[in-house]
């Protein structure tokens, strides 16, 4: 009964505020939550970006050159077609992922092996494969996470879930092995990050190398003591000060953004996505199953449609979109598209029916 209540509350919250998050799997720095809002939020969020490069020992020209190498190395994988494989993972596919992780292949190289799978599906499967590594497949001088795994590898090569929970003592030992904590970035760490990007830009797995490497300085060896995702996120924040204009989006920039996105999507999906009336939006797959009247579409069907959109929009190459816009960087184009054209939270007052449903769910 408690599980049913939690499921009802989760579904009610999803229909009340439908938030979309794109692809973060390939880009940890860009995978943060975005809420729908007006263009004024863009100005506030963009204007708060620190302009750090002018106070550090790096010129704008060198920053642009380094960022080009970074994008070529850690560019998000985009599937060549919109066709997806929604079937269960086979033993052969599990074996390919497991061997790729044992050989320390980069995430981009693993994504290229499965062009018919979504980035989210591959990322989840990779996490299971990492937990299922055997003792002879782990890396030296690395905490043996395989001893405290939640999944194991069978003799036939597949992975299955084990019964039981991870003990608290095991979690404490794992946290002690990786003493990362959240803290603000200092000027010394920003300078060290730039030196590491200069050293490893263009190499596969550069962010992992930058997070684990040390740089010899005047005061001795220095280490960031940061995760690879944190290093990449900070680099994206620093590079924003040299790319893209700030302030409100102009109508010309919005038109360029819409045209650039439409070129990479099928005509039916693009027409459905940029419809002015939310009630007129309906995915082609759902047209046969729903009634002819758009107003009769239930909230549950709208959520199903939004999930289908989020899966199909993974094929957008935001590098090309930012190039087509010209005056905005990749992060600004993503943020603008999510807020303006894809986020649809209900910001009106709560209706009596919604309040009654919420009270029943809490009980």
From TrEMBL:
Single GO MF descriptor: DNA-binding transcription factor activity, RNA polymerase II-specific
Top-rank lineage group of the source organism: Eukaryota
Domain HTH myb-type: 181-243
Compositional bias of kind Basic and acidic residues: 350-363
Span list, region Disordered: 276-297, 344-363
Residue ranges of every copy of the Myb-like domain listed in the record: 181-239, 241-341
GO cellular component: nucleus
SUPFAM superfamilies, per database record: Homeodomain-like
One protein family per Pfam: Myb_DNA-bind_6
InterPro entries (UniProt xref): Homeodomain-like_sf, Myb_dom, MYB_TF, SANT/Myb
CDD domains in the cross-refs: SANT
Protein name: Myb-like DNA-binding domain-containing protein
Native source organism of the sequence: Lunasporangiospora selenospora
């Amino acid at each position: 009964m408690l599980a049913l209540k939690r499921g009802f509350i989760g579904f009610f919250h999803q229909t009340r505020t439908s938030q979309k998050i794109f692809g973060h799997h390939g880009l940890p720095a860009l995978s943060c939550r975005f809420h729908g809002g007006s263009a004024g939020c863009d100005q506030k969020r963009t204007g708060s970006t620190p302009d750090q490069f002018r106070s550090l020992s790096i010129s704008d020209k060198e920053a642009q050159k380094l960022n080009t190498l970074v994008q070529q190395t850690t560019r998000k994988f985009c599937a060549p077609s919109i066709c997806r494989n929604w079937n269960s993972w086979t033993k052969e596919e599990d074996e390919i992922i497991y061997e790729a992780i044992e050989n320390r292949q980069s995430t981009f190289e693993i994504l290229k092996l499965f062009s018919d799978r979504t980035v989210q599906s591959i990322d989840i499967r990779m996490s299971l494969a990492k937990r299922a590594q055997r003792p002879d497949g782990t890396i030296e001088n690395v905490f043996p996470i395989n001893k405290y795994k939640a999944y194991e590898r069978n003799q036939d090569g597949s992975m299955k879930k084990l019964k039981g929970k991870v003990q608290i003592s095991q979690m404490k030992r794992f946290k002690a092995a990786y003493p990362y904590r959240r803290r603000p970035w200092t000027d010394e760490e920003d300078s060290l990050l730039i030196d590491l990007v200069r050293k490893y830009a263009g190499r596969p797995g550069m962010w992992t190398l930058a997070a684990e490497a040390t740089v010899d300085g005047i005061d001795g060896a220095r280490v960031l003591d940061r995760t690879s995702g944190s290093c990449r996120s900070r680099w994206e924040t620093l590079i924003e000060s040299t790319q893209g204009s700030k302030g409100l989006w102009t109508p010309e920039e919005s038109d360029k953004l819409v045209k650039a996105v439409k070129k990479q999507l099928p005509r039916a999906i693009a027409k459905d996505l940029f419809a002015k009336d939310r009630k007129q939006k309906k995915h082609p797959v759902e047209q046969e199953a729903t009634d002819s009247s758009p107003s009769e579409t239930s909230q549950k069907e709208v959520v199903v449609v939004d999930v289908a959109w989020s899966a199909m929009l993974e094929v957008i190459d935001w590098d090309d979109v930012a190039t087509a816009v010209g005056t905005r960087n990749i992060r600004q184009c993503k943020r603008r598209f999510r807020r303006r054209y894809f986020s649809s939270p209900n910001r009106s007052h709560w209706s009596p029916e919604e309040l009654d449903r919420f009270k029943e769910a809490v009980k």
